[in-house]
Specification:
Elements: H1 2-13, H2 19-29, H3 52-61, H4 100-109, H5 112-121, H6 134-142, H7 152-163
Helix pairs in contact: 2-4, 3-6, 4-6
Length: 168
């Protein structure tokens, strides 16, 4: 239960935050951003302008098989966030809508050491995946068999939690 509480606390800490800005802050300052960092991809002060279209492509390319019990907005299993009303289940009302693809892009693009560490810890290549293109990254996010967690979003957040000793 402690692991679930730690994970719930981490989700609370990064609620309403851009995943790229979260990873950028962890790498630059060693801490999570203070308060929410909520903005769209094209308004993100941390994503280089030339990469913004690629990050947008990554977000747009994530596709799930019919019947997956994964939220198509935040990419977490529905058990990890409160039930959302179907008619309001869109990005604007979701506390983690900008977290996972943007964080993955940051892990892959900001720091080569972090990228290699994540690739190894998450067994990306060993499980037949690559993070070379937005489409390949989107396929990794959507594949429930890409990690031991059964959900790539959870695996990525657990990696960041361990790598940066969040909550320690």
């Amino acid at each position: 239960m402690a692991a679930q509480d730690t994970f719930s606390n981490l989700l609370r800490l990064v609620s309403l935050s851009c995943g790229y800005c979260v990873v950028h802050s962890l790498l630059t300052h060693g801490t999570l951003p203070v308060g929410p960092v909520q903005h769209g991809i094209h308004d993100c002060p941390s994503i280089p302008v030339w990469q913004r279209a690629l990050v947008h492509r990554l977000v747009a390319d994530v596709r799930y098989e019919r019947g997956e019990r994964t939220c198509y907005v935040c990419h977490l299993p529905s058990a990890h966030h409160p039930p959302l009303q179907p008619l309001r289940h869109h990005r604007a009302n979701h506390p983690h809508a900008s977290l996972i693809p943007q964080a993955l892009w940051a892990v892959q693009s900001i720091d080569p050491h972090l990228h290699l560490s994540a690739m190894d810890a998450l067994s990306v290549e060993a499980r037949g995946h690559s993070w070379s293109t937005p489409r390949e990254m989107a396929a990794w996010i959507a594949d429930s068999h890409a990690t031991d967690e059964g959900n790539s979003a959870i695996a990525l957040l657990r990696f960041l939690h361990a790598e940066f000793h969040l909550g320690a």
